[in-house]
Amino acid sequence: MAELNSWVVTKVKKQVATQIMNRAKLGFCAVVLALAGCGQDKPVAPSSEALAKLVPPTEASKGWYYAGQNKIAEKAQSVGPLAGKGKARNVILFVGDGMGVSTITAARIYAGQQQGKLGEEHELSFDTMPFAGLSRTYNTDQQTPDSAGTMTAMITGVKTRAGVLSISEDVVPNHCGSGKGHELFTALELAELSGKATGIVTTARVTHATPGATYAKSAQRDWEDDSELSAEAKAAGCEDIAKQLITFEARLKSVASEQYVNNVNGIEVVMGGGRRHFLPRDAAFNTPDASKKIEGKRNDGANLIAEWQAQHPQGQVVFGKAAFDKLAPNAQSHVLALFSESHMRYGADRGADKLGEPTLAEMTDKAIDLLKQDQDGFFLMVEAGRIDHAHHEGNAYNALAETVELSDAVAVALEKTSAEDTLIIVTADHSHVFTMAGYPARGNPILGKVRTGSGKLILDENGLPFTTLGYHNGMGFANIVDGEGERGAINVGRHDISDIDTEHRGYHQEALVPLESETHGGEDVAIYASGPGAVLVSGSHEQNVIFHVMDYAAGLTQSAAKAVR
Question: What positions does the entry give for Mg(2+) binding (predicted)?
């Protein structure tokens, strides 16, 4: 750990320490003026005026916000004391990126079969939760959604356009200036203003759509570092997503009243991938785990990891498993753990990592230990980001294995927290065009070919065997025997898989429609919940209602309203 911290400190430029706060504060009031009333000097009580500063600024966004709020209020009234208003001291939101219902079913069977069961009777950890419902995932401009718009709905209570992070649908996608005045407060930001500890855990890049929506405002989800900003965005003075993670604390402090400014101390736990977006495009800044000649992508010369360390001198920067294992709970400490240049590895490939990577369950375990040091409670978002990536590749093996890893992480959270004071929600941002069909016998290997109870292959009309699992679109069939090769060109349609082992990790299922990447699906996804407010997820909901369940159970907006100017 000392060596890593020393590496960070030696990269700090002389001007970094004095410029961080100044750059962060500059212009933020203009960005959030309509939401937070930056011009006021005196703290206000949680009146309707104070609350108004935390709700969306435009009519379109208010429509979504109040509709979701009203639905939960009506639901709470119907269930009475079971609604648990304000009873959640802690909130954990698990997001299985791309984890549609067919994925859950197949993963349940896969996990059971890994334990020697037939499989269908098995239960994933979140199957045991007492309440469940459905979430409608469409974006305001797309029937089949993307992760930026869907996570924005869950974390702000407002639906928005595809590709947009925590800005209302009034924004013009890819036009940074159009987002000014339309930014939305997130549940994580409200938790910060309330004095709670906050954390982000993901197997994707920490700047990717799902984690990014918790702390950043962006008209384009791909603006993960300054090299990806458009000319218009640069001219408008907009910050890239990685930079917004570093300036998060200062930006939020600028809207807090003097009396409550100490409530905001930054995101205590950030764990995932994406180092490349925090480092300059210069080999001199490569980390000990760099796999490319030049690891960083930033063109502005900024070393954001060093800037983070300057903000948090007692904080711990982590790049590998050994340093991760040494992390100990400390109420005064912050953690920035970036385990890879881009996304973290699939679980099946984890052993190949140079410095080693923890599992999602291990990161969740550590994050809870760190965050629960705060006596005011915590808000934690945990994403199994690579379920989605495996599906896009047409690879059911990794999609199911990553879903089981999410189940393991949820099991840890259920064990380490109490249903008396912790609301846990498990859901997905969207589904995929992933199918499970063909009348296989019960207990047939879920990744295998369709067979009868006697083991006989069931053939299609062309006399060819087929698998239980498949995709409507994508690149189609591939059989990468070593599991690490390139999958090659698009190869859709039927193939003779009679002599192919379809259960190994390098097999990619057949697809019908040829596309460079398999697409999301547009159907509803499941919501599971336990703890205070969990009953409120029961039923069929617009996706933005998930925010209002968390807000109702934890009183985030009411508490945060005391802290804004």
Answer: 97, 208, 210, 383
Amino acid occupying residue 553: A
* H or E stretch covering 270: strand 269-273
* Rounded CA separation 522/525 (Å): 9
- The single-letter code of the amino acid at 295 is E
Q: Could you tell me if 555 and 93 are in contact, meaning their C-beta atoms sit under 8 angstroms apart?
A: no
**Residues whose CB is less than 8 angstroms from the CB of residue 123 and which lie 6 or more positions away in sequence, other chains included:** 108
Q: Are 394 and 508 in contact (CB under 8 A)?
A: yes
Q: Specify whether the CB–CB gap between 110 and 447 falls below 8 A.
A: yes
Helix, strand, coil shares of the chain as percentages rounded to 5?
40, 15, 45
Predicted confidence (pLDDT) at residue 18 exceeds the cutoff of 60? no
What is the biggest distance separating any 2 CA atoms in the chain, rounded to whole angstroms? Answer: 77
68-95 tens-digit pLDDT: 999 999 999 999 999 999 999 999 999 9
- The CB density around residue 538, as the number of other CB atoms within 10 Å, is 16
Instruction: Report the alpha-carbon distance of residue 399 to residue 403 in Å, rounded.
Output: 6
Q: What is the pTM of this model?
A: 0.92
- For 185, left (φ over 0), alpha (ψ -120 to 50), or beta? beta
How far apart CA 466 and CA 463 sit, in angstroms, is: 10
Please provide the distance, in angstroms rounded to a whole number, between the alpha carbons at the two ends of the chain.
Answer: 39
Cβ within 8 Å of residue 319, ≥6 positions away = 4, 275, 287, 288, 289, 337, 338, 339, 355
Q: What is the pLDDT of residues 247-304, one digit of tens each?
A: 999 999 999 999 999 999 999 999 999 999 999 999 999 999 898 999 999 999 999 9
Euclidean distance between CA atoms 234 and 255, whole angstroms: 24
| Cα angle 207-341-246, degrees, rounded to a multiple of 5 | 40
User: Across the beta sheet with 469-474, what order do the strands follow?
Assistant: 434-436, 469-474, 511-514
Can you point out the beta strands (E) in 111-236?
131-136, 197-205
Binding residues for Mg(2+) are 97, 208, 210, 383
pLDDT at residue number 338: 98
Residues classed as catalytic = 147
DSSP for 223-247? --SGGG--HHHHHTTPPPHHHHHHS
- CA 143 – CA 138 distance, rounded (Å): 5
Cβ atoms of residues 130 and 530 within 8 Å: yes
Annotated binding residues? 97, 208, 210, 383, 388, 392, 429-430, 520
Q: Which two tokens stand for residue 32?
A: 């959030």
Q: Which residues are annotated as a binding site for Zn(2+)?
A: 97, 388, 392, 429-430, 520
